[in-house]
Amino acid sequence: MNTRTLLWIGGVLIALAIIVPFFRGGTTHVAGPAGTVGMPAPVVPMHDDRGAPVSLADYRGKIVVLNLWASWCPPCRAEMPDLSRLYSEYGRFGVVVIGVDQGESPQRAAAFANSLRIGYPIWIDDQQRYGRTFTALGLPTTVFIRRDGVVARGFDGALTLDQMTNALKPLLDHS
Amino acid sequence: MKFSLILVCIVLAGVLVEVLFPGARAYQNGWYNVALAALAIVLAMRARSAFAAAKSKRVRAAILVCGFGVGAVAFAGVSFGLFAPDPQTVIGAPGSSMALEGLELHFPLATEDAPERRLQGSYILAPQPRTVVGVDVFDAAGHHVTITQPTGVAFLSPVLLMQATQSIGGITVPYDSFSVPAVHRVVKAVLLGPDVVAKMPQLAADGSAVLFDVENDSEVEVPHGIGVARDGETLRLGGLQLRPHLLSYPAIRVMAIPNPIVVGLGTLAALVAMLLIANARVVRIQA
């Protein structure tokens, strides 16, 4: 290959390197919790419904099912008993379900959870920070987090017990 | 030769200014890029003649390197002018992310974590401070309640980005809205700047304030549903307690630039080559 050919090839490659970045157009919002898959789950310090400080960092090494909910949300209410069942069936495999109340007071969240006899931890996210960082499109929003703290699956809307189990099983297998 | 060197400097300066001072509309004007291209073509012709007339291999190599460097820089500049997207300001909710022109834009949860002006590929991202309104909402009993923004950028964000505007009494003011699903309320929030507040002596306030208008789910205003609150002040309206926080949160100004690596290397190559050519001429004159 002679010098002239090499110069031409080099010139074409440089021209492409210059032009191509301007053609990766379009604007997209990373829509919904599914857009956070593969990213480390944000660790946002907050308090549980009893006022104790809590953090996702405390659950590294466990599979976390993080459920964003609120007491005024009918699908959230419908889903919570299944989440409770998931928690009791898979707890011995290192699975934790955490219900993160979005924007409500600890009293309201605790009263509601007690009325449904919810056994899993209830956290209070009064500034709705998890709702924002997981770009929730609505409530409920459920995120499955691997033992290494990385988001594995994200769901917008209520899940059945079967759907929860199907999302959980691959994470158990990989563990 | 002197004329050619001047032309080289003009072409390099014309592209370097696009990198160092991005965002000006002139860069993407037709005349600007036609001028750059025309100068580059003239230089190419002069370089070809100079290459043929050059007696030493060193000078020929320098002319080649200079031509390649200036050509690459000029191409980068003209390509930018023709194909690059216009500068744009992107407003995002704290904690959100979006993809734009192949870039990943992340808006941090807290203003103090907002990144500085930075280079990302062929784009400069610069923060532009804006006033946004964070809202705490409580029910009549004083319990914190969820707020949602069904039509906003982020559904569960309690930070109102105030992107829309409306005219009140001939004054254009920013506004936004949110829902409080637990108590079936929809609240509109209007940001009143210091100049507007100054015309409202009953507020007895300096700076900005927020006007709230509370409606029910059927968009019917509730009794005693309009009021104005200063920053951090709690206002009781329509069965709610509303507390606005006026915050400065940056939008991101996205400005394309000519490929900085090509411009940098091309400029360096051209300058080094020009020095070599100038040096060779001095040696020849002395000889």
Written account of the structure:
The complex is a heterodimer of chains A (175) and B (287). With 175 residues, chain A is an alpha/beta fold. Chain A is built from five helices and eight strands. A seven-stranded mixed sheet of chain A has the order 3-2-6-5-4-7-8. The longest helix of chain A has 17 residues. The mean pLDDT of chain A is 89. With 287 residues, chain B is α+β, with helices and mostly antiparallel strands. Chain B contains five helices and 13 strands. The relative contact order of chain B is 0.17. Classes of the chains: A alpha/beta (175), B alpha+beta (287). The interface between A and B is large, with 41 and 43 residues.
Features:
A: 175 residues; alpha/beta; seven-stranded mixed sheet; 5 helices; 36% helix; B: 287 residues; six-stranded antiparallel sheet; five-stranded antiparallel sheet
Spans of chain A of 5+ residues with little confidence (pLDDT < 50)? none
Q: What is the structural class of chain A?
A: alpha/beta
* SSE series of chain A: HEEEEHEHEHEEH
- List SSEs of chain B in N-to-C order: HHHEEEEEEEEEHEEEEH
**Main sheet specs of chain A:** 7 strands, mixed
In round numbers, the mean pLDDT of chain B is 88
Count of extended strands of chain A: 8
Major sheet summary line of chain B: 6 strands, antiparallel
**What is the spatial order of strands in the main beta sheet of chain A?**
3-2-6-5-4-7-8
As a percent range, the share of strand residues of chain A is: 15-25%
From the N-terminal CA to the C-terminal CA of chain A, the straight-line distance is 53 Å
